[in-house]
């Protein structure tokens, strides 16, 4: 006959209250699941760890709501994943103000240009010699006053 | 809306791919990736929505374990393949000299 184990340190009342306050943001169908999941995670934590954990849950509940809502009806395809490591991109690349272009070629020998810093591919005719065409292709806007 | 291969997402996938057959709970994944629960659970929800991840409640008797059941996550077979391919593509696109995100050093 199995003996009852000592219960791990349970969540404090305020940690439970904070979790309960954060889950109503979620879609109704997901609330119970995430509340149970977060409460289960809290078992065995010190008070400081519980405070840190519940703070992060509160801070991330809107993001979780968006994730749960967008998750409905998804299919498993690589096409749905943007492969660009966006958080790595330097600010000037993100703002499309400056790229460090260099020449690369594809497996079939087609030449193209790619930014060394952010990995963005240059599209369109980039070697026509026409400054504006080149600028539009590279930067998305016209440079100079004409 | 396309899912972006952000650094936290890459870290979570790295953790899950270390042993694709092993089930991990959210707190465990966050600890290994160095990410907070507020970051990890939205990512897990997105991955689950994409079919890369499956989850289930732990099958335990709470009175025996001394705690409630945890929610365990594991990559699906297809999800593991797609995750490897996605990480490889991100690494290939990463500019020269830029290091890969290291586990345990997330946000």
Write up what this structure looks like.
The complex is a heterodimer of chains A (146) and B (107). Chain A is mostly helical and 146 residues long. Helices cover 43% and strands 8% of the residues of chain A. Chain A has a two-stranded antiparallel ribbon with strand order 2-3. In chain A, a hairpin with a 5-residue loop joins strand 2 (101-105) and strand 3. The relative contact order of chain A is 0.09. Helix content of chain B is 50%, strand content 13%. Chain B contains 5 helices and 4 strands; from the N terminus they run βαβααβαβα. Chain B has a 3-stranded antiparallel beta sheet. The chains are: A mainly alpha (146), B alpha+beta (107). At the A-B interface, helix 2, helix 3 and strand 1 of A face strand 1, helix 3, helix 4 and helix 5 of B. Strand 1 (81-82) of chain A pairs parallel with strand 1 (3-4) of chain B.
Biggest β-sheet description of chain B: 3 strands, antiparallel
**Spatial shape of chain B:** elongated
Mean pLDDT of chain B: 87
Strand content of chain A: 5-15%
Q: Sheet bearing the most strands of chain A, described?
A: 2 strands, antiparallel
> Beta-strand level of the residues of chain B, as a percent range?
5-15%
Topology:
The complex is a heterodimer of chains A (146) and B (107).
Chain A: H1 13-22, H2 28-42, H3 47-71, E1 81-82, H4 91-94, E2 101-105, E3 111-115, H5 131-139
Antiparallel strand pairs in A: 2-3
Helix pairs in contact in A: 1-2, 1-3
Chain B: E1 3-4, H1 7-18, E2 24-25, H2 26-33, H3 37-49, E3 53-57, H4 62-65, E4 71-75, H5 77-93
Helix pairs in contact in B: 1-2, 1-5, 2-3
Question: What descriptive keywords fit this protein?
Answer:
heterodimer; A: mainly alpha; 5 helices; B: alpha+beta; 50% helix; elongated
Short description:
The complex is a heterodimer of chains A (146) and B (107). Helices cover 43% and strands 8% of the residues of chain A.
């Amino acid at each position: 006959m199995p003996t009852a184990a000592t219960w791990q340190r349970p969540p404090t009342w305020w940690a439970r209250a904070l979790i309960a306050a954060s889950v109503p943001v979620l879609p109704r169908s997901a609330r119970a699941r995430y509340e149970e999941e977060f409460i289960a995670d809290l078992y065995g934590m010190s008070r400081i760890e519980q405070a840190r954990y519940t703070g992060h849950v509160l801070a991330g509940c809107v993001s979780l709501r968006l994730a749960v809502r967008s998750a409905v009806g998804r299919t498993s395809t690589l096409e749905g994943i943007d492969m660009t490591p966006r958080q790595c991109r330097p600010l000037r690349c993100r703002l499309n103000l400056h790229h460090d272009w260099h020449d690369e070629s594809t497996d079939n020998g087609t030449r193209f240009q790619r930014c060394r810093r952010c990995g963005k591919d240059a599209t369109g005719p980039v070697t026509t010699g026409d400054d504006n065409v080149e600028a539009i292709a590279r930067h998305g806007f016209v440079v100079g006053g004409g | 809306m396309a899912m972006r291969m952000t650094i936290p997402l890459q870290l979570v996938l790295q953790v899950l791919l270390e042993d694709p057959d092993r089930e991990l709970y959210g707190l465990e994944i966050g600890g290994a990736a160095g990410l907070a629960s507020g970051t990890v659970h939205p990512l897990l929800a997105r991955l689950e929505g994409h079919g890369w991840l499956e989850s289930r409640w732990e099958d335990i008797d709470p009175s025996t374990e001394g705690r409630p059941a945890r929610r365990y996550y594991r990559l699906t077979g297809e999800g593991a393949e797609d995750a490897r391919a996605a990480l490889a593509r991100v690494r290939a696109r990463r500019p020269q000299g830029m290091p890969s995100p290291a586990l345990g050093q997330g946000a």
